[in-house]
Amino acid sequence: MPEELSGIPPSERVLLLPHCLRPSDRCPGRPSREGFQCPLDCPVADCPIKVLRAEAERLGYKGVCVAPGGALALRYVQEKRPRLVVAVACPKELREGEEAVKGLGEAPRVLSLPLLRDGCVDTEVDVAAALRLLREGLGGS
């Protein structure tokens, strides 16, 4: 699969994350119509959203959306029109999202990673696996 993705530059990729990944007891972010907004100077060093957003931005991704659900994430994909979506969510949201994306005109490729623990609050993801997925097909990035 990395060979197939090597033709998709970071500028044509987006990252979708669920807002439930945030550490709810320490998170200074706020919900908005555009997804969850994290402050630039976020003090929560171990927040998986912060770590994954920073890497996507470092790689030059087209955008990152921290969504409370599939409807906002799908709208984001429709607006950004990426060639590749890297999505992290619970298995149910991933299945529904992949089906919804298939219905788009020029559907992007989707790489997905299910949460290790879901439950809508303080969920967990394998951050190392998510970082590898972000870099998939990018060579030595």
Give the arrangement of secondary structure elements:
Layout: H1 2-5, E1 13-18, H2 48-59, E2 63-67, H3 70-80, E3 84-89, H4 91-102, E4 109-114, H5 127-135
Parallel strand pairs: 1-2, 1-3, 3-4
Provide the CATH architecture: 3-Layer(aba) Sandwich
What would CATH call the class?
Alpha Beta
Order of helices and strands: HEHEHEHEH
The domain tally reads: 1
- What is the structural class? alpha/beta
* Major β-sheet profile: 4 strands, parallel
Unreliable parts: none
Distance between the termini: 16 Å
- Shape type: globular
* Order of strands, widest sheet: 2-1-3-4
- The CATH topology name reads Rossmann fold
Mean pLDDT score: 89
Describe the structure in your own words.
This protein is an alpha/beta fold. Helices cover 34% and strands 16% of the residues. It has 5 helices and 4 strands, in the order αβαβαβαβα. The protein has helices at residues 2-5, 48-59, 70-80, 91-102, 127-135, and strands at residues 13-18, 63-67, 84-89, 109-114. Strands 2-1-3-4 form a 4-stranded parallel beta sheet, with helices on both faces. The longest helix is centred in the middle third of the chain and has 12 residues, at 48-59. The mean pLDDT is 89.
